[in-house]
Amino acid sequence: MNRALALLTENDWHTLRVSARKLNFTDGEVIIEAGSEQRTIYLILNGFVRITGSVDGHPIAIHRLGPNETFGEMSFLDEESASASVVADGDVQVEAIDTNRLRSLLASDPGFSERVYHSLAVTLSQRLRDATAYVQELNVNEVAQVNRFHSTRLGFITHRQMPEGLIQSIEQFDQRMRDLQNDAVNGQNDAQLDRNVADLCNAVIEDLERYTRPDALLEIGYDDLMAYRDTDQLLIGVGAYIFRQTFRWFMLSETMAHCYMKPRGFSDDIVTNELIHENRPRGDTRLGEAIDRWFLNRRFCVARRKSAELLAGIMRRLLENQAHPNILGLASGCAAETLTYLKNTDGQPNTTLVDLDQEALTRVARAQENAGLRHNINLIEQNVPAMVAGRGRLTLEPQSLITVIGLFDYLMESDSLALLNWIYRTLQPGGRALISVTSPNHADSSLLVHLLEWLMHERNVADFNAILARTKFGAAREWVHDEEGIVAYAILQKD
């Protein structure tokens, strides 16, 4: 009948519920408070509840439960106080089973007792498996994000193969940067410094793109008959050379340094996106600030800053004339697009944001407070791929709109298929999904990959359509492209 006590028979449930009390709670009402003594097991009849903790005074949910699910059974087993709060998410009706009554029933009926404890053992075992898998996924994902490219950074290219023109150009870049560093110390005009830095940095990117083109790599490979000719390895080698020679300068930029160092385990984290959205150049010395300004003015960063308004506009169009839509954001990050939408809607959507990063969820809560938004926003701390695989307790109503901004850029094809099928099942009939796909070979692709080790599974429209063709969606209903040519947005619909 429910996940926690799945082995009980109908007669068992009848016995339990004879003495149970029906209770009703309104939205936001606390059913169980963390730290309180518990003497009750609850069965949800109607509605939903959130299992929540508190981070910096903001409630962050770790589970969301719905009809036919139970809570409070762990306190019955260990007789400890509640480890988390349980809060009504909308109007909720539950049946409350007194644990003293339950113990009396267990003592009087050995068969019933065996089924109850067996059910609870299965529940605990499954939660332990989920927790173990969750930790393993975190470790594997972090190592993959941080180290995926590092093992090949030495490159596979001989000194004789390195184009003389590239060597001279990079040496000139280094010398000119030294000169600009002295000019900055001696008080060169900021505007002139910015222009000079932009010219030099743009020249490096032009060299990177020029010498990593397929024809250039083939020419490099044939310059030395005894050398490597695998163009993929030559590509890494050329990129690694430019990376090593320019590293000291680009790392003066705070944003670029954060992207490369990945202090939170991956480039595309909440801090990176906030640095890009704030667009306030920072760096080590005036030269570093100028380099940061150059990076923040690149198309990739401009597209990120414009994306919130673009996506909010799409959301308004897709949810037009819906007074109370259910909105779900997966791997929501700073949720700038959702918050922008909420600021400009007359409706009363029920919004759920799911992200692995607790800090990201906390910052969303702060942003909601600062903007004075009174909309209902549920913040759920969950690993989305693990959730899709069935690990974690998250029960949702059918959704009107599901947004996935950025996550597919980091998923293998098999994981993408699993997530798309999960989205289809979770949407209500006629519901839509809004998904971002970063285009391959965009204007800043070489910069991100070779200088910042910011790696994605970039896909063009045809690539993603091929994946969609293997799902129940079949194809996208519409594609929307940003002005900078960086990201395409797929709009999907459940028939």
What features would you describe in this structure?
A seven-stranded mixed sheet has the order 9-8-7-10-11-13-12. Strands 1, 2, 3, 4, 5 and 6 form a six-stranded antiparallel sheet that branches. The longest helix is centred in the first third of the chain and has 38 residues, at 110-147. It has 495 residues and is an alpha/beta fold. The protein starts with 9 loop residues before the first helix and ends with a strand. The chain has helices at 10-18, 73-78, 99-108, 110-147, 164-185, 190-211, 214-222, 231-250, 254-261, 270-278, 285-296, 299-318, 336-343, 358-371, 384-388, 413-426, 445-452, 461-468; strands at residues 21-25, 30-32, 40-55, 58-65, 70-71, 85-98, 326-330, 350-355, 376-381, 399-404, 427-438, 478-481, 487-493. Helix 12 crosses helix 13 (336-343). The chain has three domains: 10-132, Jelly Rolls, CATH 2.60.120.10; 152-300, no CATH class; 304-493, Rossmann fold, CATH 3.40.50.
> How confident overall, as mean pLDDT?
88
The largest beta-sheet arranges its strands as 9-8-7-10-11-13-12
Structural class: alpha/beta
**Count of strand segments:** 13
Can you say what the CATH homologous superfamily of the largest domain is?
Vaccinia Virus protein VP39
Discrete helix count: 18
Helix content: 40-55%
CATH fold-level topology of the largest domain: Rossmann fold
Overall shape: it is elongated
CATH class descriptor name of the largest domain: Alpha Beta
Poorly predicted runs of 5 or more residues: 138-152
